[in-house]
Amino acid sequence: MWYISTRGTAPRVDFEGALCSGYAPDGGLYMPEELPQLDRETLRHWSSLSYPSLVKELCSLFIRPELIPREDLNDLIDRAFSRFRSGDVVHLRKLKNELNVLELWYGVTYAFKDLSLSCAAQFLQYFLEKKGKHVTIVVGTSGDTGSAAIESVQGAKNVDIIVLLPKGHCTKIQELQMTTVLKENVHVFGVEGNSDELDEPIKAMFTDVAFVKKHNLMSLNSINWCRVLVQIAHHFFAYFQCSPSLDMHPLPFVEMVVPTGAGGNLAAGCLAQKMGLPVRLVAAVNHNDIIHRAIQRGDFSLSAAVRPSLASAMDIQVPYNMERIFWLFSGSNSQVTRALMEQFERTQSLHLPKDLHSKLSEAMTSVSVSDEAITQAMGRCWEENQYLLCPHSAVAVSYHYQQMDGRQPSAPQCCLASASAVKFPEVVLAAGLTPKIPEEILALERKETRCTLMKRGDDWTRMLRATIEDLSRKRKRGPRRGPRKQHGKAPPAI
Ligand SMILES: *Cc1c(COP(=O)(O)O)cnc(C)c1O
């Protein structure tokens, strides 16, 4: 299996190449050269599998055994999920009013990013160990990516991770999940700025190709192919759990309601669909609605600014993974995709060609959900089931309730729950409900924290480069010591 760029002019790479690079050199995103088509027999077999076994089957279709032999692949995936809070890893919850909620948040940081990042981290360490190499991962985060990335590589021999978080712009719990990991290979910076501002020093660094090469730098952000790959599995798992039968001809449809921001989870759903899974997709977004406008009217143009919402992990201005979706629905046409994306980058506005828009709107529909509707869905779900939703999952559930209150939905629906409510007590309170916070999360408040400030007025790019150079120097000298850090107790109250 080879991977090619959506823009068509970069050389093809194998899975390792796709995992270790973010963008392809031509600015595109990596996609598999061909997509395996699953017949009914395979689907029937997959329907009997546990979620971890499903991930193994899926990954074995996209990673050649010469690269990772099947036995090793199985071990790595078992290891990836070994610290999850449930042996099942992913759980379907059936609630009143035909509400199906697929809980994707049993990972250590209580959000679905743990699923893909824990696998990506295991695959990465496998390749590094084989070659005796080391990488430094640099990520900017608005909250959930940073904590999941740190969790997945903390303590790893061949990896250092540097995370920039927007001081004061992510939730207290998200911040503590990052700053309380005191492993030597974890380096957290609190930036006095928002998530767009902290992207700037990272971007500036990654454009210095010589520097990136010299220090073996990589990112693990949401455009990484491996993250999309692993997320395909839960669409299959959800289908098997919610489909009334696998004996019908043709197979019955299930509607997958996907809370999305950067389009990663949505791209995974499109890939599952293209592999033969009979799912209809619903892109459920908050009031940052560029994906919704693209699906409804072909209008893929940037809004003036990100508007903060209660579903903050989906407050995204540029949904990078839509490039993969445009490529898929233009018949893997890289010329068309490149022309579209280059126009978008130039003018920040794009009207989708008619045939692309009609393919897109055949495959999926969409909804944009207000903050008020988010808290309403959280309230109703609690009233009917005594079940707390996180605000992102509530975006999906709001769509389900809208459908139930209008006509009966034509197919069973499954709402993907991308995080646990325990991670967002502020929003639970805002919805007039009572947060339930597990001891494990309360304990974060009492732990020692470590975080270096990047103050306004400091040269952030210089600080970042100095940290990386320092790490490289120390590695050369032998036993490692992290850069100097500010120590302190976590401030009280959530
Ligand atoms: C990252 C995130 C999302 C959005 O995921 P995409 O696939 O990038 O759209 C949704 N919900 C939560 C809780 C997240 O952390």
UniProtKB/TrEMBL annotation:
Give the span(s) annotated as Disordered: 470-494
Q: Which family does it belong to?
A: Belongs to the threonine synthase family.
Question: Which superkingdom?
Answer: Eukaryota
Q: Which residues form a coiled coil?
A: none
Residues annotated as domain Tryptophan synthase beta chain-like PALP: 105-399
Q: Which biological process, per GO, is one annotated for this protein?
A: serine family amino acid catabolic process
InterPro entries for the chain: Thr_synth_N (IPR029144), Thr_synth_N_sf (IPR037158), Thr_synthase-like (IPR004450), Threonine_Synthase (IPR051166), TrpB-like_PALP (IPR001926), TrpB-like_PALP_sf (IPR036052)
Q: Specify the species.
A: Heterocephalus glaber
Q: Keyword check for Transmembrane, yes or no.
A: no
Q: Which cofactor does it need?
A: pyridoxal 5'-phosphate
| Residues bearing the modification N6-(pyridoxal phosphate)lysine | K113
Q: Which residues form the Threonine synthase N-terminal domain?
A: 3-81
Q: What is this protein called?
A: Threonine synthase-like 2
Q: Which GO terms describe its molecular function?
A: lyase activity; pyridoxal phosphate binding
An example Pfam family from this entry, by short name, is: PALP
Q: Does the keyword rRNA-binding apply?
A: no
- Keywords on this record? Lyase, Pyridoxal phosphate
Bias category Basic residues: which stretches? 473-488
